[in-house]
Write a structure and sequence with these properties.
Shape: elongated
Number of helices: 8
Radius of gyration: 43 Å
Largest sheet: 9 strands, mixed
Distance between the termini: 128 Å
Helix content: 10-25%
Structural class: mainly beta
Strand content: over 45%
Oligomer: single chain
Length: 443
């Protein structure tokens, strides 16, 4: 019996082995058909440069050539490839400066966060990084602060200061250092309500106004003026807010005296008021009006003197105070000079009686708000004239046709006064558009 069992087990061994091989082959075919091996490309995988101190020890810095990225050709099972991010973030490509060759090339190595992918399954294109060794140069730049956003209503950024100091020391390859034009700390102040410390990452701009790329920035070292390394190029900015004061009247004075028989009757400015931002102390010192330091010279004048004044000249002597952002510092000042006995009265346009207004015409009047009437009092004993003492009327009959017309104003004056100058308005007359269904034509 034992002999028969042994014969059954050991007999036809070659047939049994062949069956095993065939079975394994069939299993592999089925397995590969379901989970085949294939090759995929992962592009724009960045290169990390390490151990740059090996070059710094000889007073040199590394400036990589090319784009700073590689393409990886990965051959693996489909199931493994599907788990890898298409961005290539699962791969780490390294250029170790300890391995630099005499031809200034550095072999690249790659590792994958997925342990199923081994180094021999990945091809790096290109396989090495070409670098240039340059002299290391150090230079100091004055950093500025740029603002993004606006503080809460009623506030403006008054002052900003970089806590690490405004002098930033940068070291890097000579080719990059030669094109640096500006160093800026951008910060966001949107909605800020109180003085705050805000962090910002330093940005470097070249002489064409373009910002340095991440690759260029990585080649630079940043330190403060005391030699302390600025980690990740991050600085802290102290932001002090100022309060805004609106509708502050502008007050201008004159110097000199008009010609004999003339006097200054009024002074007007365009605009009439300004808005300023300042510290509490500066706003308190300002008071209720803005007194312009520059005076208008009217010496010997017989007619209105018009002059432009830059308010920044006055603000230069006022600490902690300035115009609000984007405000025009230029003010136009008009000093009205009139003969003794002359008085100018402003009459609202709405007080003028318009006669013979043509139907079907749109009329646009200039000036649109008020008419200035210059009168002369015949004796010193008359009462002071007021707006309501004048009666003005205008005949619009000539505006029946389209065009621009200068219409004289008839002025009725109280006893003791006469008209010193003729008064007129400009009227532009155009036909009204025909009324369509659903459209209301105003009168």
């Amino acid at each position: 019996m034992a002999h028969k069992i042994r014969q059954a087990l050991l007999g036809n061994l070659w047939l049994k082995f062949l069956s095993l091989v065939i079975g394994a082959g069939i299993w592999m075919m089925v397995s590969n058909a379901d989970n085949p091996t294939r090759t995929e490309l992962f592009t724009n995988v960045p290169i990390s440069i390490v151990n740059q101190d090996a070059i710094a020890d000889i007073g040199k810095v590394v400036e990589p050539e090319g784009s700073g990225v590689v393409t990886l050709r990965v051959t693996e099972k489909r199931s493994v490839l599907e788990k890898l991010s298409k961005s290539g973030s699962a791969f780490y490509v390294e250029a170790d400066m300890n391995n630099i060759t005499e031809l200034n090339t550095v072999p690249l190595t790659v590792t994958c966060s997925n342990s199923a992918v081994t180094w021999d399954e990945v091809e790096i294109l290109p396989s090495s990084l070409k670098v240039t060794l340059e002299d290391k140069v150090e230079q100091t730049y004055v950093a500025s602060v740029s603002l993004d956003g606006s503080p809460s209503s009623g506030h403006e950024v008054g002052t900003t200061s970089i806590l690490e100091g405004k002098n930033i020391v940068i070291a890097g390859p000579r080719s990059l250092m030669n094109i640096i034009n500006q160093v800026v700390a951008p910060i966001n102040v949107a909605g800020m309500e109180d003085d705050s410390i805000v962090s910002g990452t330093l940005k470097v701009y070249d002489k064409n106004g373009s910002s340095f790329t991440d690759s260029q920035i990585s080649s630079l070292e940043f330190k403060d003026e005391f030699g302390n390394v600025i980690t990740n190029h991050m600085v802290n900015v102290l932001v002090e807010l100022w309060k805004i004061k609106t509708d502050v009247p502008i007050v201008v004075t004159t110097t000199g005296s008009p010609a004999w028989g003339y006097n200054v009757t009024r002074i007007t400015t365009i605009p009439e008021t300004i808005s300023v931002a300042g510290t509490p102390e500066a706003l308190e010192a300002l008071g209720s009006e803005f007194n312009v330091a520059d005076q208008v010279d009217v010496n010997g004048a017989k007619e209105t003197v018009v002059q432009e004044i830059n308010l920044n000249d006055t603000l230069a002597g006022m600490d902690g105070l300035r115009l609000i952002t984007d405000a025009d510092p230029t003010v136009q000042v008009s000093v009205v000079i009139e003969a003794n006995g002359d008085v100018t009265v402003a009459v609202p346009l709405s007080d003028i009686r318009f006669e013979n207004r043509p139907d079907g015409m749109n009329l646009v009047v200039t000036p649109a708000d008020e008419v200035l009437v210059k009168v002369h009092h015949l004796s010193e004993n008359v009462d002071t004239i007021q707006t309501e003492d004048l009666v003005l009327s205008a005949d619009l009959a000539s505006c029946i046709e389209e065009g621009s017309y200068e219409i004289p104003i008839t002025v009725e004056l109280p006893e003791g006064y006469e008209l010193a100058e003729d008064v007129s308005i400009t009227v532009v007359s155009t036909k009204q558009e025909a009324q369509t269904e659903g459209t209301k034509v105003s009168g």
